[in-house]
Amino acid sequence: MILFQCDYNEGCHPRVMEKLLETNPEQTVGYGEDEHCARAAGLIRKACGDDTLAVHFLVGGTQTNTTVIAAALRSHQGVIAAQTGHINVHETGAIEASGHKVLALAHRDGKISASQVAELCEMHLHDASFEHTVQPKMVYISNPTEYGTIYTRKELEALHEVCRSYGLYLFLDGARLGYGLAAADNELDLPFLARCCDVFYIGGTKVGALFGEAVVISNDELKKDFRYHIKQRGGMLAKGRLLGVQFEALFEDGLYLEISRHADRLADQLREAFKQAGFPMLVESRTNQIFPVMPDAVLEELGRDYGFSYQERVDETHSAVRFCTSWATKEENTDRLIADLKRLAQAV
Amino acid sequence: MILFQCDYNEGCHPRVMEKLLETNPEQTVGYGEDEHCARAAGLIRKACGDDTLAVHFLVGGTQTNTTVIAAALRSHQGVIAAQTGHINVHETGAIEASGHKVLALAHRDGKISASQVAELCEMHLHDASFEHTVQPKMVYISNPTEYGTIYTRKELEALHEVCRSYGLYLFLDGARLGYGLAAADNELDLPFLARCCDVFYIGGTKVGALFGEAVVISNDELKKDFRYHIKQRGGMLAKGRLLGVQFEALFEDGLYLEISRHADRLADQLREAFKQAGFPMLVESRTNQIFPVMPDAVLEELGRDYGFSYQERVDETHSAVRFCTSWATKEENTDRLIADLKRLAQAV
Amino acid sequence: MILFQCDYNEGCHPRVMEKLLETNPEQTVGYGEDEHCARAAGLIRKACGDDTLAVHFLVGGTQTNTTVIAAALRSHQGVIAAQTGHINVHETGAIEASGHKVLALAHRDGKISASQVAELCEMHLHDASFEHTVQPKMVYISNPTEYGTIYTRKELEALHEVCRSYGLYLFLDGARLGYGLAAADNELDLPFLARCCDVFYIGGTKVGALFGEAVVISNDELKKDFRYHIKQRGGMLAKGRLLGVQFEALFEDGLYLEISRHADRLADQLREAFKQAGFPMLVESRTNQIFPVMPDAVLEELGRDYGFSYQERVDETHSAVRFCTSWATKEENTDRLIADLKRLAQAV
Amino acid sequence: MILFQCDYNEGCHPRVMEKLLETNPEQTVGYGEDEHCARAAGLIRKACGDDTLAVHFLVGGTQTNTTVIAAALRSHQGVIAAQTGHINVHETGAIEASGHKVLALAHRDGKISASQVAELCEMHLHDASFEHTVQPKMVYISNPTEYGTIYTRKELEALHEVCRSYGLYLFLDGARLGYGLAAADNELDLPFLARCCDVFYIGGTKVGALFGEAVVISNDELKKDFRYHIKQRGGMLAKGRLLGVQFEALFEDGLYLEISRHADRLADQLREAFKQAGFPMLVESRTNQIFPVMPDAVLEELGRDYGFSYQERVDETHSAVRFCTSWATKEENTDRLIADLKRLAQAV
Prior knowledge:
- Chains A, B, C, D: It holds the Pfam family Beta_elim_lyase.
- Chain A is α/β, with parallel strands linked by helices.
- Chain A has helices at 14-23, 35-48, 61-72, 86-89, 94-97, 114-126, 153-166, 177-181, 190-196, 220-223, 226-232, 241-252, 255-276, 296-302, 331-347, and strands at residues 2-3, 54-58, 77-82, 102-105, 135-142, 169-173, 199-203, 213-217, 289-290, 293-295, 306-307, 309-315, 318-324.
- In chain A, helix 2 (35-48) packs parallel to helix 12, helix 3 packs across helix 11 and helix 13 (255-276) runs parallel beside helix 15 (331-347).
- The C-D interface holds C 75-76, 78, 89-93, 96-102, 128-129, 131-134, 309-310 and D 75-76, 78, 89-93, 96-102, 128-129, 131-134, 309-310.
């Protein structure tokens, strides 16, 4: 059985593991105040081209989203997100449990636009009973999105502008950021993200680390007291240096983008193979998530040898599913799947 | 200027005020443990035909909704409601501030159906990552809804059944309950509500009282410790007897339904007048809220003499607005408006 | 049975009731945006000698405390209060339910001092793991306190200074403010409170109104968006004008202080009578709450004719109890109690 | 510089690291539903002698405490803890941020007693306004406590009994459980804990793992839906198998207790050396935390070569500090410190 259902089926990249092994006996202070965290933060600031950025390391995505949002909002404020946004559907109400409403917008392939944000803000401002509704104060986007799509430079700039106009914070969830930045059609880079977003994070869990997300804060308002929130939301790892060590490995020699490119390249090959075998994509993208629409009978057969995840029913006999590649995907496995797809196509 | 924009423009019904005046010098214990509250609760239990019901008095609607929902749910559970439900749009995120997600469903004239609830529950149960999503545990409906519509006996029974099947609580927001029960096409009554709902409330604020909502709980699980929650959510009035006194007045001689009928009768007259003047209804109903669609120019003229509230834009030159009647509406005022509508129709 | 157990056993002062009656048929807009609220706010601003103050009207004390505190604090911040403070003991954890820790300090007769606040702040600042502890951001005091005591001018100034030094908000709970301002030994007045506190409230529920608390905000940071919080916490009364009307009555002719003086004068008489009868005070004060320490046997006898509330056990045969006077207390009733105390004293 | 300030200065035990390395390339499903977690849970159930226990793996202590408490309590309920309990002082108000009050009791060397719990419950039950106070529903204890002390068999049984009597859950925080179970004067074992507690956890972070806490639930009420809460509170690690793998290593050959004994043995030696050098203990215990009281001048000198943490001021010239040993402490380092203490003693 070969697993393609997500991008966290394996442990970590060997170079990350090596560094964990090598630093294991070291004595350091706890809670992220050690030298590895300091060095990793420095490498990230450098990669972002801005040495005033605050960089913090948290353990996982739900925790990071909750911490950033709860730290930023007052109790009457909410966060705008796509209906399909991770915080709106797949975090067991973590944002609401911290007291805040997710203001969900219709999505286009997982994305939302500046004009949708403007429209919601205008409605709020002109509502005679605006104080009876949640005040929008933050925009949450993910890049890549839950559908594998990415924002263009222009789209992100427009979101930045609309947020500035209406006094909103822009927060980008980069749980899979590497796979976005490494995509064939990507227009973004870290310095651009640091300029456009008030806060974003660079996902490690899905991109080569055992776990860990690096939060990058450019807005001074959000920098203040952030470590209190990390602690309160359970994200302050006692042995914080584990996070620093992993991000050192990922950022000291360009490993983060290098392994992301590997995943995207294999995803492109797989996507092509699905299409050539006659299985169209639910959503087009060039990152590591692939969403073919396939006959249920074919899926059943494929499911004997390959793990993938169910996305949604398309019609009575077809479903969309998700295959993921990652930094850990072996080319021999994608080759085998490609060969099987060809075989299946001929059989159908 | 005659105000029709809501059903809380005036104080309270003279018989309620009289009773407040008469009992004003009495000494009673506080926090709803007095004899007026006991007697009012008894009257409501009797009207509901069930002497095992728990009856509590709270001050206002947002408070009541938050208290009932927060008392019923554990932190990983959410409440299903229509997209247009009051708790989803007009309580400044009070439910989320208490830690719970509102699981919004598409509405039909403000209503949701048993089949929609079943579908959501089935999706939750069959989701491979169901523990990553909020567990549905309560259904919130309002009757009349925010669009003035009411549930039929069959619809409510179906909701009751679906809730029982999936282990959900059924909660009916009766902020305007009187206007529902008194409507020409109403099929419901209090005993039926007490059987179908785990908890519902009888609105006083909008139906003759200065303020106050009577929560009626039939499900034993929800009865337990409910007064702690009233106190915690700020709903335990020090002079709780004020609530008891008002509900005594409303329920000792059938005043509650009597004044509701008055409002619905005038609403029917007004609705008819709007239609005859050529202004169609956004939503059809027989309760005290009226939603005519009118040319913006006509609205501007009408706005000089009458207060009404803006509902939504219909097209470039037309908007839907809301006129409300209430227990306090004077027939001379509706007559005047009807005459003006006739005049406007001729002018157009 | 004559009730002395609290200061909310009766309805409202006749002049308040008269005004409610008189304005009952009026049509006004809802949610506190009517002219009565505007006028009442103006009267309070004038009484405080500062026309830049924001004044809002809420229904009850728990609600007001929760709303003010939740509006002011970010999620990692807590509120300092006396161990005996109302928010720490008698609000069913309402502050914690809004997400904030009450940082309790030892009290002296219900009061806390500037030096205690400074000490806590210093400890926080010098704690190596300060980010692992709640950040103090507000000081909550009540005046009169839960023990009937009041702050001197010097004590309040010192609290104001220490709050300014450490960047804390000073919040004064004035649920019984009138009885403090009217006390024989009082040194404070409204203009002084408005200068010293970032926010305080003038209690109506216990001082002549049916219900209602007037929140007075002097700090601009706390003024921003406050109405959203009122709505979210369930304190925005639909018929908000009821609050305005009552505070108009209380503040247009000095009624608020006049009726407070009445209560304090009778309390002084009662206190004197207790002492002369040989029953010492648990706590000395000159406001409307009286805390005699009495033999349990005497309390049992007294309990047949008078309602009072239990405070605490003093020794095996003595307890401290609480008698309250209020704006509504009849002199014939205090006279009767005084006579009975004399009789009891002779009997003992 | 040799660090003794805490028990999480190093990475993980070599046998844990070895297993992480060995399993690193494996493909498994995520979120703790893999075979390593299943096997580790089985080993723990076996060690506890009860195969009906639910076992879950979370990342860290604050997260575990918040998740367990928030999952167990309804919104009007609070958790009883020692004033010095970790949840009351060192989690940045995480429990309050989840909506619950910590009901703090005076401690004796970090411990609380059954009689204190009974007294608090009796007070609550007999309070005329009990609904105005938080309902106690859980008792939180730590073993070892924050002062390194441990509960006797009799003390824990008494707590179990009192909890059963008053309908409270008993929750034991075992962040340092190994060091308690391995202490010279320990009377407890895992089966006894599983019988006495409704829920407890076995700390990995401080006892040989990189991170991770194993929650053991015996009460069926608390088992229900627990994974939703793990996800909501950010504790569901994507690569959950990392937790399983580490607890396999700790529990398959008795490693957990073996390395705990090592730490306690060195702590006993150090403690003896402090005392012989004339430095008394602030609190007596036999676990891995040592609290000597020392002259400030000596501490300054010692601080040049050794890391330790500040505990509290004892008098003008003396402070109590904390030295910790752990599974990772090298005997050569404790020997060196012992030698230095002898030298310092002679110098003083």
